[in-house]
Structures are given as structure tokens and as C-alpha cells.
Amino acid sequence: MGLIQYINSKAFLEYEAAQPRASTFEISNLGSFQIDPTYEIQITDMIFSQPLGAVGSCFGCNVVGTSNGGLNMCLTTTKGLNHQTFVKYTEGVERWINFILKNN
Asked: Has residue 18 been placed in a domain?
């Protein structure tokens, strides 16, 4: 963090925003949280979400699960995306999930 003083963050972000995105889709998977069944309090479900940022991917998928069977995917996108493109994105993710479920 000490080097941040040597970077012009405004110029950096302006430069990055003018460039084509480096990626279209980003997946972050926290994995499955193993909870000791002898604990008095149990976590049965979790949600994990993180923003994509102004210069990140257009689409994101954040995944987390629990040993008790909870599994969630949070789909994210950037501001300004039109509704039709978002619908195509979510339908594509649904086909991808169905493919995985059928082949495992």
C-alpha cells in the first residue's frame, strides 16, 4: 500500500476505462464451507457477491456453498447493460449449470 502514493489513480482509471475490457466473464468460487456438525449453531446457507468494478469484466458469477447443502450463485453485471443482453447472459448461465448437473 505504500506505493499508492506514486500512482496517479485518476489518470490510471481514465486510461483503463478507454481500453477494451481484458475479459468478458469472471468467476469467483469461495468453495464449500465445512461446518462441524457438533457445533450448536449451524450455517445452512451463504451468499457471496462482489462488484465487478468500472474496468473489470462485463459479467460475473460468484459461488459459495455449505456442507449442509446450501449453494448459491450470484450473477453480476456492469451498469448500463441493456435488459436483452442481461437476459441472454442469465439464460446462458442456466444452460451451463444444467449441462454440469447432467454430466456429473
From this structure: no
What total of structural domains would you count in the chain? 1
Q: Pull the grid cell for residue 51.
A: 462488484
pLDDT in tens, 45-64: 899 998 887 788 888 899 99
Determine, yes or no, domain membership for 17: no
- Within-domain flag for 8: no
What range defines the domain where residue 83 resides?
24-102
pLDDT tens readout for residues 23-37: 888 899 998 888 888
Question: Do 52 and 77 meet the contact criterion of CB atoms below 8 Å apart?
Answer: yes
Q: What's the half-sphere exposure (Cβ side, CA atoms, 13 Å) at 18?
A: 6
- Burial status of residue 60 (CB atoms within 10 A of its CB: 0-12, 13-18, 19 or more): buried
